[in-house]
Amino acid sequence: MTKTSANPAPGSAGVRSIRRIHPLTLLLLLALAIRLPMAFWPNVIYPDEVFQYLEPAWRMLGHDGIVTWEWRDGIRGWFLPTLLAGPVALGDWVAPGGAGAFVVPRLVAALASLSIVVSAWFFGARVSRIHAIVAAFAAAVWFELIVLAPHTLGEPLAVALIVPAALLLTGRPSQQRLVIGGALLAFALVCRFQYAPAIAVLVVGACWTCRRNLIPLIAGGLVALLVAAVIDLAHGAVPFGWLVANIEQNLLQDRAAEFGVTPPLAYFVNFLIVWSVLIVLPLAAIWRGSRHAPLLLAMAVVDLVFHSLIAHKEERFVFLSVVLLIIVAALGSAEWVHALRSSRAWRAWALPMIAGGWALLSVLLAGTSEAMREYWMRGVGAAQLAAELRKDPEFCGLALYNLRFQLLPGQERLAGSSLLYALNLADPIAMGQLPALAQATSPAFNRVLSRPEVAGGLPAEFSRRSCARVGIADACIYARSGTCDALAAMPFVINNALVRIGH
Fold first, then answer.
1. Can you list the residues of the chain whose pLDDT is less than 50?
2. Residue 465 phi/psi, 5° resolution?
3. Which terminus of the chain, N or C, has less C-beta within 10 A?
4. Are 110 and 36 in contact (CB under 8 A)?
């Protein structure tokens, strides 16, 4: 009788312990490993993430910050800035000087984005284990979901609420799931009310066969809306008055059109630009996956059509459509795994091959188009200049010389406790005479940010230091020696100037 050894083979215990970890846990760790470093990468894709959310949160904590026209006209709600105030305060306590107040909220946003990965898993699990793995893996590694994950914007935060709400409201929802789902959808509406048509599709789909589902769903939504109303009241604002003002400004007065107008097919063209000819792969997968999640596909299409009808378009506006389409496509690609497994030769390689295809396609498309490359780098040059200014021991006042403040990383990260001034051709006081204005106000600041091509109008004592890419061209720091006398330029403190300019 042969005796077998009781000692396991070297490394076998470690392999078994890894196998005991739930696949969803491993996929969440993968998603975290990709997203958390992105929170520290100082790119700012859209100015709104700073000036509509982080700057108001910073002002809530008793600091100075830039006030944009949206806040002066009352078209923004206080819900998101209030939620971000805690992470902003924590970040400033951990790493004072603006960097922590910028990074910690991004870490929170990145963590919130994991709800999409979890939801994708459970959508897939309704079909099979393979569908769950492929759907969660695609949500974890797809570049378009990663690029917005750490950014403090209404769109990704709303989507992080809508996708789990869709999970809760479909299948066979319990009363508790309906209440929670209704609350999540209401909070999502407060974050991004333009997602209302897609949310309406979800609600109709969830309640079509059982009208009684509406009662707990509406109850959960009303509780969430009450919370948002109380937050508005706490800030001295009329509850949801911002929503009425936003519709008036952007739909009736067409204010959003000032920021650019594109034709109805612009989003579809953008998909072709970003995904190139490889778009046939996700389209084929969406076709296969539509039978597993028809309601998700309907939401994506309605959201895409609705935003296509709005003249002013930005890629982030249809982030909900992108996320839902990727989940549906992932469910469809899992069908290919099952098809390949029917062949004995491909059985062991089917899942790694499809998952690897998602990863490879994501890496390729993340850097293939010029638009995506610019996304990853947008705002990095401005952050470099801001960091240099904050480290300058002689810095006591900063002027933006005909340079858009929207391209910069916010008042605290840019100027700290020093005063920030705006000298702009559009300012009625300037009367088109910026060189004379810069000469008259120069005692108030000893550092200037300007484009090199217009910096010839600066006083002769300002010399150029370092430059970096800001927007579509370089911007440079110009410096003079000496101290600052704030009284020389008080009318041009940035918030005073923005009121006159209307920005």
1. 1-6, 8, 12, 14-15
2. -110, -120
3. N
4. yes
